[in-house]
């Protein structure tokens, strides 16, 4: 292989001709957005939409300033600053790979205790949107109530030290306080995480935290800032040795490349108090009906990810495409979604729920996407309540079967015991792993101990249609294993399974 070309502004024109590079002069870009949480997803998704707008000669005053609020974000900053905040995006299509350099990000704020640099940058007039990808578990939600967790130590710290916050939300509040004092005006807070009503949740966190230290500021934020809901979708694996090898195969030395599937979707509520880029001109959808798009995606795609990842990891299957190649895992996905989830998901313009399931199955089956089952199974304590348990409640309310969803919960309980079918150890894979592991251990003698975790299941343990099915599957998994339980579900009549 020829010598690799280090990625930078100075080397863009030296890259191989088959690598798409920015068609705009990056030196003319100016900032409009601060984005907190510069992981792979943001760079493959929101930053790409803006990059393609800039390619059209549009929105050059909306460039992204990256930011992070955790100590480990400093390593990502160092990598990206060294390559002028450029990212190589590698599209993994079964018909062939392609590479593109995204240039919509122009700086990355220093990561520091107290977040003073971040606060001051967000307070400047040119910043009109502060967006976030901090994971669905990062919004300080009380699992038992679904509301704001005012007792979390990070929240208590920020309420007591509003000028030196630990959290992204505390930093946003401190910046808004400066903007109000300086007469700069509000900015829009835009969540890009996998949460239904993510903008509403972000607004609740910001206003509730502000109220704990400055009630007048909380009122000002409520009256002036906007927090649009959005739905985001693109499968983006983590970057490891394989991804670094892929970028080198294009002749590029990029320390933080991103691989992604050949599909993106972004649906946004058009509610921006200080303006926005014309994302719709790059393929995003501006809609007043974000909720229905969210429900379809979260229940079918994100819920489907959980349905296949957990049994696959238990069976030692390492990738999502490998899970889809397992006959009974795929059949469980299809049957559970068709009979227990889709009946409570509304169609959206141009897409019915079962058509969306077919699309999801094709995407999950893409062998070029090396997305691990362990990554997808991570943080079940956020993802099960977010993507699976709402479908259980809706199915019970609608009189639909819940056998597959009960099996999903039993598989999660078995997963948290920390051992695969072959005896290998499942290393901790959840922020609350210690509690989950101990509860799973107790459930070995009393399965209902698992459903007694009201912070996740609420009163579902008291509903026999669900709890009886859960106990049946849990005991079958303990006696005969994952494959036997999957076969029993796939081959059963759902009405009979529900009555077990």
TrEMBL record:
One GO MF term: oxidoreductase activity, acting on the CH-OH group of donors, NAD or NADP as acceptor
InterPro entries: 6-PGluconate_DH-like_C_sf, 6PGD_dom2, Mannitol_DH, Mannitol_DH/Oxidoreductase, Mannitol_DH_C, Mannitol_DH_N, NAD(P)-bd_dom_sf
Keyword Oxidoreductase: yes
All residue ranges annotated as the Mannitol dehydrogenase N-terminal domain in the record: 32-281
Keyword entries, A-Z: Oxidoreductase
Residues in Mannitol dehydrogenase C-terminal domain copies: 289-475
Protein name: Mannitol dehydrogenase
Taxonomic lineage: Bacteria, Pseudomonadati, Pseudomonadota, Alphaproteobacteria, Hyphomicrobiales
């Amino acid at each position: 292989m020829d010598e690799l070309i280090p990625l930078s502004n100075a080397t863009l024109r030296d890259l191989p001709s088959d690598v798409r590079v920015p068609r705009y002069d990056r030196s003319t870009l100016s900032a409009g957005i601060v984005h907190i949480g510069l992981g792979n997803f943001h760079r493959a998704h929101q930053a790409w939409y803006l990059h393609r707008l800039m390619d059209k000669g549009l929105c050059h005053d909306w460039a992204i300033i990256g930011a992070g609020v955790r100590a480990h974000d400093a390593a990502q900053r160092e990598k990206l600053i060294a390559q002028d905040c450029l990212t190589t995006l590698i599209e993994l299509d079964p018909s062939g790979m392609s590479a593109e350099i995204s240039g919509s990000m122009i700086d990355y704020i220093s990561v520091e205790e107290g977040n003073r640099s971040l606060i001051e940058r967000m307070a400047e007039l040119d910043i009109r949107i502060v967006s976030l990808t901090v994971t669905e578990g990062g919004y300080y939600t009380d699992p038992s109530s679904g509301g704001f967790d005012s007792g979390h130590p990070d929240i208590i710290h920020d309420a007591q030290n509003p000028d030196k916050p630990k959290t992204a939300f505390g930093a946003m509040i401190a910046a808004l306080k400066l903007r109000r004092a300086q007469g700069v005006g509000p900015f829009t807070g835009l969540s890009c995480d996998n949460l239904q009503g993510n903008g509403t949740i972000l607004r609740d966190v910001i206003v509730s935290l502000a109220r704990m230290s400055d009630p007048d500021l909380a009122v000002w934020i409520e009256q002036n800032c906007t927090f649009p809901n959005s739905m985001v979708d693109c499968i983006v694996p983590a970057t490891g040795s394989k991804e670094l090898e892929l970028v080198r195969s294009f002749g590029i030395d990029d320390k933080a490349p991103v691989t992604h599937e050949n599909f993106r979707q972004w649906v946004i509520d058009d509610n921006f108090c200080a303006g926005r880029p014309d994302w719709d001109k790059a393929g995003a959808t501006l809609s007043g009906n974000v909720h229905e798009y969210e429900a379809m995606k979260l229940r079918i795609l994100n819920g489907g990810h959980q349905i296949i990842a957990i049994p696959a990891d238990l069976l030692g299957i390492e990738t999502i495409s490998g899970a889809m190649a397992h006959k009974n895992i795929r059949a469980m996905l299809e049957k559970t979604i068709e009979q227990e989830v889709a009946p409570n998901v509304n169609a959206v313009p141009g897409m019915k729920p079962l058509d969306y399931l077919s699309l999801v199955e094709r995407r999950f089956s893409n062998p070029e996407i090396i997305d691990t089952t362990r990554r997808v199974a991570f943080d079940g304590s956020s993802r099960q309540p977010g993507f699976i348990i709402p479908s259980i409640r809706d199915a019970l309310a609608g009189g639909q079967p819940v056998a597959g969803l009960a099996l999903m919960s039993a598989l999660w309980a078995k997963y948290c015991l920390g051992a695969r079918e072959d005896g290998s150890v499942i290393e901790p894979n959840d922020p609350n792993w210690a509690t989950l592991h101990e509860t799973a251990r107790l459930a070995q003698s009393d399965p209902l101990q698992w459903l007694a975790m009201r912070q996740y299941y609420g009163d579902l343990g008291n509903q026999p249609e669900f709890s009886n099915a859960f106990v049946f599957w849990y005991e079958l998994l303990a006696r005969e294993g994952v494959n036997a339980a999957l076969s029993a579900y796939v081959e059963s009549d759902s009405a009979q399974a529900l009555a077990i």
